[in-house]
Structures are given as C-alpha cells and as structure tokens.
Amino acid sequence: MDIYHAVTSDVKDIYDLIQIYAEKGIVLPRTYLSLYQHLQCLYVMKQDNNILGVAGLHVLGPDLAEIQSLVVSPDYAGKGIGRSLVKRIISDAPKLGISRVMSFTYETEFFKKCGFKIVEKETLPEKVWVDCMNCPKFNCCDEVAMIRYVG
C-alpha cells in the first residue's frame, strides 16, 4: 500500500468514498468539480489500483493548512490507513511553508493519537473566514477544532 498524489482518474472513486461518510454526516460532501479543482491537494492510498483512503491538505494561510475529507474505505477501517495519510500530510506540510496543520473533526481521539490538540475555533480565523462562512453547519457547528504544530 502506497500513498500518491491523486490524479484525475481517481476522482470518481474519491467521490464515492467521501459520499459514504458524507451521507452519515461524518464529513462534508464534495462535488466532482471541487475534487477536480483541488486535485493537487489530495492524497490517496492505493493497493492494486484500488483507493483505500483519501485525505486533502488545504492551505488556508501563510503557515496554516487543514486536513480535509480524510476517509478510509469501510473494508479497511482500523488498519492504520488514516494514520498513514495524516503522517504523510504532516511530513509534506513544512515543504510548503506550513507550520500548523488543523482539522475540524468529530474524530478527536484519532487526531489526539496523531499528535493534535483541541483548540478553540476562534483561534483559527483563517478557517472561519475561508470555509465556515459557506458551510451549512455555520450556525450550529458541532465539530471540534484541533491543531498540530509541525516542522
């Protein structure tokens, strides 16, 4: 199992995998257009050309990026795929000048195991102004903000 930068031929499978969790309200849905527009930000773990997991690293400011759309195929949950994707993102972030990686998540225990700490959402105005203003959960967000310093 290796981690790659996503390519256009991965988009349908990425979309389908994200939809599994979006329908359960665990992650926000993504459109095909959004996936194509942010393709250079997406990482996939593959085995035999099958996508087992996906995660995005979205830059929000000069030193801040967010892990988005981190999902793993239900058939491979609990096998370290999510952690491997986060580890890869954390190792690549400093190459982009990123010193802080954050996530808005329900999976706090998972992110704690990956070295993240809970913070107040208000400490991340870059996220609020870039993404939250257009989010359907803006007035009732129940996700937890977490951050990890890298580099």
TrEMBL record:
<dbReference type="Pfam" id="PF00583">
    <property type="entry name" value="Acetyltransf_1"/>
</dbReference>
<feature type="domain" description="N-acetyltransferase">
    <location>
        <begin position="1"/>
        <end position="151"/>
    </location>
</feature>
<dbReference type="InterPro" id="IPR016181">
    <property type="entry name" value="Acyl_CoA_acyltransferase"/>
</dbReference>
<dbReference type="GO" id="GO:0005737">
    <property type="term" value="C:cytoplasm"/>
</dbReference>
<dbReference type="InterPro" id="IPR045039">
    <property type="entry name" value="NSI-like"/>
</dbReference>
<dbReference type="InterPro" id="IPR000182">
    <property type="entry name" value="GNAT_dom"/>
</dbReference>
<keyword id="KW-0808">Transferase</keyword>
<dbReference type="GO" id="GO:0008080">
    <property type="term" value="F:N-acetyltransferase activity"/>
</dbReference>
<keyword id="KW-0012">Acyltransferase</keyword>
<protein>
    <submittedName>
        <fullName>N-acetylglutamate synthase</fullName>
    </submittedName>
</protein>
